[in-house]
Amino acid sequence: MSSDRPDDDIAADAGQPRWFVASLERGLSVLLAFGSDTPELTVGEVARRTAMSRAAARRFLMTLERLGYVAVDPKQRYSLRPKVLDLGFAFLSSLNVEALALPVLKALTRETTETTNLAMLDGGDIVYLARSVAYRPLHMSVHTGDRLPAYATSLGRVMLAGLPAGALDAWLARTPLRALTPHTVTDPERLRALIADAGRDGYALVADEIAVGIISIAVPVLDAAGKVAAAVNISSQSGRWTGPEMIERFLEPLRAAARDLAPALRAMPRPPASPPTEGRTP
Amino acid sequence: MSSDRPDDDIAADAGQPRWFVASLERGLSVLLAFGSDTPELTVGEVARRTAMSRAAARRFLMTLERLGYVAVDPKQRYSLRPKVLDLGFAFLSSLNVEALALPVLKALTRETTETTNLAMLDGGDIVYLARSVAYRPLHMSVHTGDRLPAYATSLGRVMLAGLPAGALDAWLARTPLRALTPHTVTDPERLRALIADAGRDGYALVADEIAVGIISIAVPVLDAAGKVAAAVNISSQSGRWTGPEMIERFLEPLRAAARDLAPALRAMPRPPASPPTEGRTP
DNA sequence: CACATTATGTGCGCAATGCGCACAGTCAAG
DNA sequence: CTTGACTGTGCGCATTGCGCACATAATGTG
């Protein structure tokens, strides 16, 4: 097949343009292969999980080991080392999460005695940036960096409401709405209406949709340009408060906190909102 | 099997063996180029900081953008996106830090009304895995994932005391002891004695060595095999408590917490202890 | 206002790089 | 023992990613 490529800018079929550095993607996929369920992996397991040859998996693991990101034990089992935190935390500290956002969340927790969270939108998910948990037994085990589907959370709804018009449509069109509980709204039109409500009212209240027994209310955090940059919420047990009570007691404190949080967040470039294929051809 | 040394274990001049995937190292260095001080970088800045050609920096940035780790704004400035957290948090959740360790720290903070920290050793640094800060004004701005030199901290001293004999010598031999305050112990022999004390006593007390006004006491967290896997400390202001008072009030609660923390930490493969963190930008 | 100056994006030829096959050694189970 | 599912490693070859070089756009300076 001399079907050599003259220089097609859109790569043929395999899917990646000429400038794409495949080795980086493969290397990162090796790091991601380590999950909370599987903290230790062998070369073969990594190869299987990443769909690459054993020789390749081994090369990447050895490279990562030399760089200090993974370690091997005598039994040839690989695991992550603390150095991987270096990769992610430049991001959090660039947002001044610890110095600026956390104190605000803690104050809000103290005022309301409820768990509070700060999150951003990334792809179709919300990502927790910081949280302040009440002493009450944790109802859901969420952690900084964790992801949840945006459509079933109060944080997600207020942030979806802040997307440019077309972006929301595109998002709805390609996101499968799975029912996480019997109460999860999975009808696209109903969801769209709820998101519109959230945009109009400036808050979202969601009960029992991400998990039974969880109720939460969220408001957007606006950046200097007035765009929705993030969201804060208060999360509690649905037995404790009714929806109207949540609004009554928590909406104003939340809004005050959101105002305080604004300066903590730099203006983030807008989410690509289209992960797989995108055409930005100048 | 340390085979012969035909030519591959000591690679030619660049210093990397044949199996080393250079593109992964370069790609990761692009991620690390984003610091808290510089949340936004242009292609040229990244090229300069990573000492690679502009073309290469651009390839990596575009690759990372397609993968969702970075974003470009209209002004061609790149910044990290929340997805980078995915890389680091698999590690924390693999240790069950959030679910198991944090509650213990919080309980300790409640009992003592002081800030508590959990850290591991990595290279010559301690890395904070989790912390529970007291409401008292934060004296030092430390964050999960942050690093501090091990030799000047209580956490570091108890963990250094847990290293195998030879490893400590090697570590001392190659680690420059910089004075961070006038009180920092920089004499290797005095430091070695202090580390030995920490090993014998099962705790380390350090005052004003990492920063003036900070005093802390740390104890090791042992894994199932009895090895030092991590360390917990209580950190306060040196004006508040004297050393003996710290020991008197906090040592026992700390030891109890350390026992509770043990199951939270899997046995970590021992730190290579060889690669001193480097890779500073020119 | 034209001229440096320095940033950007992109094509292309070429060699080094990283690929995966294939072989060898190791441990456990049957 | 045989079998099978693992490891580590050498090596030839095609690919991949490299950086030069050029075009262009945005800055600043006389």
Describe this protein's structure:
Chain A is α+β, with helices and mostly antiparallel strands. Chain A folds into 2 domains: 60 residues, Winged helix-like DNA-binding domain superfamily/Winged helix DNA-binding domain (Arc Repressor Mutant, subunit A), CATH 1.10.10; 177 residues, 2-Layer Sandwich (Beta-Lactamase). Chain A is built from 9 helices and 9 strands. The first copy, chain A, has a 6-stranded antiparallel beta sheet, with helices on both faces. In chain A, strand 7 and strand 8 form a beta hairpin. In chain A, helix 2 packs across helix 3. The structure holds a DNA duplex (30 and 30 nucleotides).
Concise structural overview:
2 copies of one chain form a homodimer. The first copy, chain A, is of the alpha+beta class. Helices cover 39% and strands 18% of the residues of chain A.
